[in-house]
Amino acid sequence: MLRNLSAEQARYEYTDADVAGIIGISRSSYSEKKKTGRFTMLECKKLCQAFNCSFEYLFSDEVPEKTA
C-alpha cells in the first residue's frame, strides 16, 4: 500500500472516484492500482501534479523513523 498516496488523497479530501477521474481511469481500476502500486508513468505524472509533490515522496514505501 502506498501510504503517502493515501495520505495526500485524504489531505485533499479526494475520493477514489475523484482521483480516478484525474488520471483518466475507472474508480475500480484506481482502487486496484493503489493496492498494487502498478501505475503507468503517465498516471504517476498526473498524480504528482494533482498532489503537487515529487514521485519519490508520493510512491515511497518506506516508513519514517520515529524521533525521540
Describe the structure in your own words.
Helix content is 62%, strand content 0%. The chain has helices at residues 3-11, 16-23, 27-36, 41-51, 55-58. The termini are far apart. The mean pLDDT is 92.
Give a brief description.
By secondary structure, the chain is mostly helical. Helices cover 62% and strands 0% of the residues.
Question: What characteristics describe this protein?
Answer:
single chain; 68 residues; mainly alpha; 5 helices
Strand content: under 5%
Roughly how many Å apart are the termini? 26 Å
Regarding quaternary structure, what we see is single chain
Q: What summary fits the major beta sheet?
A: none
Structural class estimated from helices and strands: mainly alpha
Give the proportion of residues in helices. Answer: 55-70%
Give the topology string: H per helix, E per strand: HHHHH
Count of alpha and pi helical runs = 5
Describe how the helices and strands are arranged.
Elements: H1 3-11, H2 16-23, H3 27-36, H4 41-51, H5 55-58
Helix pairs in contact: 2-3
